[in-house]
Amino acid sequence: MPENTRRARDEAFWQTFADRYAVEPGPINLENGYFGRMSRTVVEEYQRNIELINRSNSVHVRQRFEQIESLDIRAQLAELMGVRAQSVALTRNASDGLQSLIRNYNRLQPGDQVLFCDLEYDTVKGAMRWLARHRGVEVIEIDHQHPATFDSLLATYREAFVRYPRLKLMALTHVTHRSGLVMPVQAIASLAKEHGVDVILDGAHALGQIDFNLDTLGIAFAGYNLHKWIGAPLTLGFIYIAPQRLADIDPDMGEMHFPINDIRSRTSYSTPNIPALMTLPLVFEEHEAMGGSATKGARLGYLRNRWVNAVRDLPGIEVMTPDDPRLCCGITSMRFTRHADQQVMVERLLNDYNLFTVARSGAAFGPCIRITPGLTTTAADMDLLAQALTELR
């Protein structure tokens, strides 16, 4: 048995890990996809940094943070991603970064086409529609077949690339926030390249639970969060632009604080959450010390499979996310087929079983309930969920 698989099932190990986190008494949180917890040591570091910056104010920021610490943090982030420091720039979150990439992509002409699917994040959909109003392009919206398969996903994009020959740009989400479907990014990006279509990748839910390499994926433009599965404070994300493609993204609204050949000019300039940024060296250290994305992803996948395997074939329950290991991760959605209002069932799960989940809508397959275990979730929590779903169906 591979080490990550064995460790994923080791409840004693994960309890030791869970003990590093402060958890408020109350419902069992199965909505960990919103944002992640900081460990106690990261919280303490964050608080120290707040106090330091509050005491020293601009003296420390101008003399230390801007000139030394921020550059070191950027270099460590690049090392985590396996890319050059010149290809990453910090942002407040993935949404900010993706909006910047989309609005500043400069290879579009009036009459060109841009593409997104039903499973994209609403902020990304809005940014792509903004291009239609301000760049004179045509927006193509597609729906994915349900249930999805590896081949059906590729077929949908292949058909779109052939049907819409003026396509130049598409949005693609690595891990979709509505259902947890993991898109076969490498295969889709390769297909897009064959048809001259650039991809802007939404990696908000991928970083920290999916082990990947951007070069291998064939991605030149991407936005990420650091506050989901990496364990950083809120307000931290970043963009990636392959160095050879930097000229295809304009400086953000004429940003002039950095040279035109510096990726940091592709984001809006403002005073960031400096104490939060100063926690990142410790965040990266703790992430790597526990085995990184491979270890975290294996644990989350084990917890996901524990409840899914117990209920997938039960009448009255439909699991929206496939079991193909290439297409699933810790996040998975389901719905009660005999109940029209999934929000009512979210409330039943909370009131009757003390399980906190979230309803999601907007996908072509209809409303669903998103279930996201976290790094403090136990196998017993998953068993309780399976029991609850079985009884409520």
Automatic annotation (TrEMBL):
Statement: the UniProt record of this protein carries the keyword Cell division: no
Q: Which InterPro entries match?
A: Aminotrans_V_dom, PyrdxlP-dep_Trfase, PyrdxlP-dep_Trfase_major, PyrdxlP-dep_Trfase_small
This protein is called Class V aminotransferase
Q: Where is the Aminotransferase class V domain?
A: 43-354
Source organism lineage? Bacteria, Pseudomonadati, Pseudomonadota, Gammaproteobacteria, Pseudomonadales
Per UniProt, the keywords (alphabetical) are: Aminotransferase, Pyridoxal phosphate, Transferase
Gene3D superfamilies named among the record's database cross-references? Aspartate Aminotransferase, domain 1, Type I PLP-dependent aspartate aminotransferase-like (Major domain)
| Keyword flag Transcription regulation | no
Going by the entry's taxonomy, the superkingdom of the source organism is recorded as: Bacteria
Which GO terms of the molecular function aspect are on file?
A: transaminase activity
